[in-house]
Design brief:
Strand content: 25-35%
Distance between the termini: 64 Å
CATH topology: Ubiquitin-like (UB roll)
Oligomer: single chain
Number of helices: 1
Helix content: 40-55%
CATH class: Alpha Beta
Shape: rod-shaped
Number of strands: 4
Number of domains: 1
Radius of gyration: 24 Å
Bound molecules: zinc ion
Length: 102
């Protein structure tokens, strides 16, 4: 994978630095107000004032990663809930079988 030259322009924040494409591992960001860590993100960082710049393409990619991780998590919770319901059902059946009343 070659370095993506997304930035490399004069920083609009300070006017004297250059925004350089920087690969950041475990970049902490917020998607729709939710904290999210991007495994590997490409952002532009000014070599003078350290201002961070983003491309719509990259933030869109992060959003997709975020939604994918949400799907994974909700799938996990659904699975857990299902097994919990089964467990409660079994417990109830056992109690009925043994004649214990609630
Ligand atoms: Zn700057």
């Amino acid at each position: 994978m070659g370095a993506q030259l997304l930035f490399e322009y004069t920083c609009p924040e300070c006017g004297s630095g250059t925004v350089r494409t920087t690969r950041v591992q475990n970049y902490k960001t917020k998607i729709k107000g939710y904290p999210f860590i991007v495994d590997e993100g490409f952002i532009g960082i000014c070599d003078h004032c350290k201002a961070e710049h983003f491309t719509p393409k990259e933030t869109k990619r992060w959003e997709n990663l975020f939604y994918r991780s949400l799907k994974k998590t909700s799938g996990f919770f659904l699975f857990r809930r299902k097994t919990e319901i089964e467990w409660i059902k079994n417990l109830r059946n056992q109690r009925i079988a043994s004649g214990t009343s609630f």
